[in-house]
Amino acid sequence: MSRINHKLAQAVIPPMHASGTVTHCFADGSMTVECEGRGWHCRRAVSCVIAPQLGDTVLISCVDNQVWLLALLERMDPLQAELSVPGDLHIHSTGELSLSGEALRVNAEQGDCHISEMKYSGDKLSAWVSLSRVVGKRAESVWQTVTQISHNLLRTTRQTEQVRAGQLDIKAEDYVRLHAHNTVITSKAITKVDSEQIHMG
User: How distant, in Å, are the alpha carbons of 10, 21, 35, 180, 198 from that of 174?
Assistant: First the structure.
């Protein structure tokens, strides 16, 4: 082989291992990496879970005339990274799995969470939902102040409902109705009924 033909062959043979810069990203996940003055069309290896971006320095390798992008060596923007896989992603640990960051954002069409025992602590919790359903066997809550505002409220108790309060104040703008098979009203000091009209019987 002449010297000229040898140089031409070297120019079209992808490097076995080399570093380069990402210059183009395509919709199918492939990209162009510029290395040694030439652009190589590369496929991202499955093990490269951090999605490369334009300007990143990456490691490429050629296997069976296919150029692969193996790893991300240096990030163009060191403050941003995207963990990206083409299919489902499962993270498994035999020990404790911890997430730590300044902010946490989760965005998904559907979610399913199963935790045998969960503890939550925080300074503030806000939720905006269209419909909320909670089904369980027992609920306990301790609050210093509870404020509830609603247009309609329906509460049904199958057996016994008890209210213990230091003071109980019930006020309705229009109508109050108490009905039972037996009704008992008692007080230790004063029982007062005041109205423009009082009907008994």
Answer: 92, 75, 81, 21, 16
Residue 103 CB-half CA count within 13 A: 2
Residue 46 lies in a domain: yes
Strand partners, 57: 21, 74
Q: Which tokens hold the place of 97?
A: 């799995």
The pTM for the full model equals 0.58
Q: Is the per-residue pLDDT at 158 higher than 60?
A: yes
How far is residue 56's CA from residue 49's CA, in Å, rounded to a whole number?
Answer: 14
Tell me how far apart the alpha carbons of residues 25 and 36 are, in angstroms, rounded to a whole number. 19
Per-residue CA distances from 155 to 18, 81, 91, 139, 161 (Å): 70, 49, 43, 15, 11
Is residue 22 within 8 Å of 53, Cβ to Cβ?
A: yes
- CA within 13 Å, CB half, 178: 6
Residue 185 one-letter amino acid = I
CATH number of the CATH domain containing 61: 2.40.50.140
Q: Give the chain's domain count.
A: 1
* Token pair 């247009």 in the structure block, residue: 151
Quote the distance between the C-alpha of residue 105 and its chain's center.
Answer: 5
Q: Are 47 and 70 in contact (CB under 8 A)?
A: yes
> In the chain, which residue ranges form alpha helices assigned H by DSSP?
3-12
Q: What is the pLDDT of residues 8-61, one digit of tens each?
A: 444 566 667 899 999 999 988 899 999 888 899 999 998 888 889 899 999 999
